[in-house]
């Protein structure tokens, strides 16, 4: 690798230090620009002009003025005037606090994302990026792209987002441009070839250059199939801008709170204010008009103070603080639970109480969450920006609780394993008939995989050569005792010469061990040479109509020396068509069979069916080396770079899988040879490094009898069958009778089926270079293996459980329709009618191929989705599979989901820089590490240079609230959704309870005005209730245990919020006002009457004390204060009783006892105790006690509780009927995808 990147004298490469400095500078420039425009300048002004703020300030000034008014007049001093002064000052302080909180939250939310990114930039600035390789070879994982970049004259592997302008990168055919790049060694203006991000590097890119290699050779560069490009843009700029500029929708809870506030501020407050003012004006003017002049000084209190008292509970002064506290606790709980789930190694288990025949919610894991960790996370959010997760930007708990769609925006390492796993083996039996064996991975087994067919051992003679090939042709290190994160990952050096499918990097040596080979049986083999062949001019390249299937045909071969038999063996694997062109016969388990047209047709049929089923295929072949070249005898095991061969020209061939009619002989051989090409035989380019030059070799076929002697492993290798029986030596192919290799076929170029080194007598010596060309010809076909991207463990069950919870799982596939449906079946998604929509524009891609999809009238192209929903049907909102997707179409579809009220959670690879913008615009995003990363956490202190993959993952996933490790179960997501739903539901009930209590306070005061009573509560009592007692009871709601059906209920969408607003208002009136307000007013009137003058009968009048309020004597003021405190305790008692029924929205207290909630029980007891202490402190100097209150007041106070409970249960029963109706309607809508053209 290093030699391939040796710097030529004519070009100066960037150093790693200089490139890192450019990277940091580019990131700083984008962040600085964003910070200048992040925080809106008029946030403070907008808040101060809110109606509730203006009213509060106005009333605060009025209360302060009342104190001055009382002080200025003659007469007994009224204690409540001092209280009014304190109330006014407190209100002004509250307004200042809310103003500070509001502006601070806007500021922190605006800087939250940039602070997270800035933290990563600072870590890079301080520690640098490591110049060591996370991987020493390119990976074929699409979700973890790596680019070969030349820095310090050395080729390094870096994620695309770490490239900078001026970097020099190497691309091979089939690679994808990581950013805007330009061919480095253009010699004229016509050769200034640029590639755009995401563009595939195909051989036809150099149409304007006669020989692009010569352009590089002019600069002294020969890079074994790679071409040099220079980066003309810095990708990190676009990534940071995508993360910072995208706008997320407001959460469901934020919309609901806004709607409630708007309702109160625009309607309720003004209605109550007008009604209260009218009542007090009439009360002042019409009641005892003869005393109007003597009561003139009472007008101030009646027209100002009383209006404030009745409105104060309705003004949302405490909402910002309560919302901040509850949100911070919920977020801390979610984050700590998520971390505990990822670190725990125990399994997820189903609830034991759920019947096996019922629809069971997702299994959970019982983990211990540290309260100290929760407290630290809670304080971090209150005090500063916690960049470990985006609490403010994403609305973590609100978005998770209301998620309706989970979008998987990529596959490898996200919802499936990073690399495909083997699914089937294709072999040819003695009769020329295919034999297919199913294979499955099972990590619990010693070898990690097993055959599903019970009679697989009957085919051992067929499997032995393949098993040895699988064990030898790998460098995963598992059998050498080496350990690495991805232990069964082949280095795939061939990947540096061009793109190959990811199955070529999947090591299935465990299958060889399952066949019976052990690592001891490999000790007799020594690798002497490695050959890599690429065919960029192969017909399969030009016939690849869709980029999803684009691949440069290639094969890799290794030559081994068998010490036991003193022979050389060659094992190959690679592209099926290229392998077939190199094979003249096949191994049938007993002897060699001629590769006739019917046999090849069956092989190609399997290959074609596998490809359209979204499977990847690798073919395997073998040959003995009967006339080894002297180079194989030199030294020990091969340690030099592989020998690179390039198939630069291929004769014309018919379309793949189409076979012209030919007459067949009894032996199945083709009766007609392939016609010779007029353009000559194909040429090969031998590139063994930077210092060798191209060599053209005549590959003319010699149709002669094959005289080679097959010796596959000699006799000493004795693999052991899993059952314990000894397996015979893998020498059956060696002992097979020599068979003719056959004549060139009509289907393809057959000249490579015959090799010069098989001739018994060589007319002239073969040189080393020519030997390697000939060695890969004339092979024997062994088998093919099909690979599939298996979903992660339990992924299918997770999708089913999400559907049960009303969350639609949507997979965006880049593959065409058929391939997408094939993988969707593995996920358990529906693939029949109205189940797949293609997002590529008209005229791009294969389009709809299924007849029922064509008849369904589904839209094609994301640009047609909105008009289809508006004019035809809403099927696009109900499907779970989208095909032919590109990043822009995925983003647009996410927007469409959000426009129709869906709360979207995106999950995708943390190493895929194309995901960043989609992460940023989704309601909430969860990144998944497709590989094991030494990942630094946001905000964590680092020592030493940072891992390139970790840095890339941090930038790419910067908009994500959470990050999922590669080996963490997807059930972790369902469990945090369960926790979020519980916390959000508890918080919503607690907030509704708080609002109901405040509404009850206002209603009680208004009722007392109507009944001509003195103020039933003082201002400081209202403040005490709003900021101490009611929040204390409401906090207890947050800790209520989970409901069993929390993950079987349908979530509400982010649209048409609170459509039944007035139904809930009527519930409030019935539950909070009907009994508590009436009882409190009656008790207050009784206590005031009894304590002031017990001899007088109770009657409604404006003057209970015989004098105006501002002229009350000390004794009368003590009576009024005692009555107010006693009534306040009764009110608190009723609110605590209501809270017991309010813990659950629709469940009866007889079904779900409130005593199960220890936190609520503790908070309720503390609330009653605090109110008792408040009562006692307020009455320290009072001559009255509880014994002075007559028994009728106690009977009414406690007897009302008996009436309160049935009302609560009746209202909840009615609400439950509406809730069940909503759930049924929502589930019907969720499970229905009928469209305009759907079958009946």
Automatic annotation (TrEMBL):
Record-annotated Cation-transporting P-type ATPase C-terminal domain positions: 1015-1213
InterPro entries named among the record's database cross-references: ATPase_P-typ_cation-transptr_C (IPR006068), ATPase_P-typ_TM_dom_sf (IPR023298), HAD-like_sf (IPR036412), HAD_sf (IPR023214), TMEM94 (IPR039720)
Pfam families: Cation_ATPase_C
Compartments (UniProt record): Membrane
Chief location of this protein within or outside the cell: membrane
Region spans: Disordered: 647-757
Superkingdom of the source species: Eukaryota
Entry's transmembrane regions: 47-69, 81-103, 264-286, 306-325, 991-1016, 1022-1043, 1064-1088, 1126-1146, 1158-1177, 1189-1207
SUPFAM superfamilies for this protein: Calcium ATPase, transmembrane domain M (SSF81665), HAD-like (SSF56784)
Entry coiled-coil feature ranges: none
Polar residues: bias regions: 661-680, 720-738
Keyword annotations of the record: Membrane, Transmembrane, Transmembrane helix
The protein, known as: Cation-transporting P-type ATPase C-terminal domain-containing protein
